[in-house]
């Protein structure tokens, strides 16, 4: 039965419509995985000698033990955000004579092959071997320790499942858990109750009596059984359904009326952003990344190279522009045929997108004004960058959008979600960021900062004045690409 | 008046649609029937300029649909769920479509009032997003939205499928009434021969992309269609030769 499931998975992967298209992305992911494996392996091999050098006189293994809890919590956090749960399309299997338990076991065991489970091995095994080689502990002690560590790391894998199943739809319920962790971390920090130390002591016991490694293994089995129980309970068609909300947000954004012809589209876009998970997250991301400047402004290194501030300025005033704009018109993919057969002039559709993005740039520029704390020039650069974004980058992004033909499902989580991402997205970020930096750098070098800023502003103003003309050209381009887009948006990718 | 001339659509070397000439006079209710893969949806998609014809042209009231967008102002359609905006409530969707067709809220409300029966209390005022409605209710929303703004041409792909019997009967009534009072012409495809003969004045049968029958609806039409689709027409063919 297992091999049969495996062959199903194999076919699902290789026959998926998006296989060829996302090959570039897969290659990138592969290299990333390779990179991380190398880093972890390097760390695992080097850990013992490094600890010996920096903490002479202390036992490296005990030192490591006292950090294990810290590592496990971090791993859980990372997995929660990055690791996707292994899913299987169980609907077609429900009616077939296959025991539930088999399907559930397959899903759970499949998750063991996740890359995230291999990473800790790159540290645990070399470090363990090093300890055996150094002969400070008996072989059986170290073997016990390794078993315990691997079991703990897999426990994290299955705990992540339980947490994800329970909390992804209800992130607020997670707050008490996070508070609990924060309290423990605070107690640890102020050395009131050092839980990681005690946890380390527990692991030290394993070294003394290797049989104790059974305990994490038992814990692992319990977590596995718990997951099994949970999943079996969900083996129904309606298990995945959420309780439908009695009433939804029906705000109308009446104030958009002021904008005349583009008002209906503006309203639609605002509703799109407000009511769907993925676009909504772009807003939170933008607000979060406003703080990006804090990394650079206080740092003296960048004082000597103001062109870098142009990069930061373009980034923080344009982060929503980049995140949202690069997927125009994929956001409307699920109803693009309707947009195309309704009485909608392409230019107005684009003008509304441009208006929305420009508005976001203004808002972010206003929100970035507190950076004046780091000097007038920073405020000035940010404002100029905002102007440049509105005038030049908005049309560039909309033009690049005409190459988009990948669908986006609005309600999928945006973390590690590459749906809708293609070569366009990688290519367009170059002219968006590099071009203004280059312009600034060159003019600043030969003509001075005032001229450089003046030039960027002039380009921005020129872009704004020419916008109706530019939109005409872009609209024509969208018309030409219409059939390719409609066709591309129909394909559902995973 | 819709005219298709020499229209063909080829996918990977296979001709899925091949219509030499087809006229649909203004105001005529036109039914399109045929088995799966006969080219019904392809024809409608070409009519809406959602795909490009391999050869030929379609004219909608003298406008070449693939070259000029003017036809959009008097043509409306509901093909499938991709014509609905999932994150809007039905009311918002109706108002949005209304705005695109130059109808204000009051106009739309007036129209919706006529469809209270049709909606059966399951659509309006529920504050549910379209994506959370059942397939049948989504279809109702799509069909009614296609009637906003007094379009001269209404294109409905399989409007009866997925609807409950009561709604099917109501929908037939709506189509007949609208066709009688307005100069609206409905273009309907269906697998249900009874429904389509009841509401359409003319029925065209497609088979593998070609027009094989073009019938003015009469008492005998249903029988003729049933004979055709049950395969009995083949038995009669030798006699004709």
Describe the fold and architecture.
The complex is a heterodimer of chains A (494) and B (241). With 494 residues, chain A is mainly alpha-helical. Chain A folds into two domains: 21-233, no CATH class; 254-490, no CATH class. Chain A is 71% helix and 0% strand. Chain A contains 19 helices and no strands. Chain A has helices at 2-14, 23-54, 60-82, 91-94, 100-110, 115-134, 139-167, 175-189, 195-208, 214-233, 263-275, 277-289, 293-296, 307-325, 336-341, 346-367, 376-401, 423-447, 449-490. By secondary structure, chain B is an alpha/beta fold. Chain B has a domain at 81-151. Helix content of chain B is 35%, strand content 25%. Chain B has nine helices and ten strands. In chain B, the strands form two sheets. Chain B has a six-stranded mixed beta sheet, with helices on both faces. The longest helix of chain B is centred in the last third of the chain and has 17 residues, at 165-181. Residues 235-241 of chain B have low confidence and may be disordered. Chains A and B meet through α11, α15 and α19 of A and β6 and α2 of B.
- Number of DSSP helical runs of chain A: 19
List segments of chain A where confidence is low: pLDDT < 50 over at least 5 consecutive residues: none
Question: Structural class of the secondary elements of chain A?
Answer: mainly alpha
Tally of individual helices of chain B: 9
- Gross morphology of chain B: globular
Overall average residue pLDDT of chain A:
82
**Separation, N- and C-terminal Cα atoms of chain B:** 35 Å
Detail the poorly predicted runs of chain B.
235-241
Q: What strand order characterises the main sheet of chain B?
A: 6-7-8-3-9-10
What portion of the residues of chain B fall into strands of 2 or more residues? 15-25%
Oligomer: heterodimer
Spatial extent as radius of gyration of chain A = 27 Å
Number of self-contained structural domains of chain A: 2
User: Could you say which structural class the secondary elements and strand pairing of chain B correspond to?
Assistant: alpha/beta
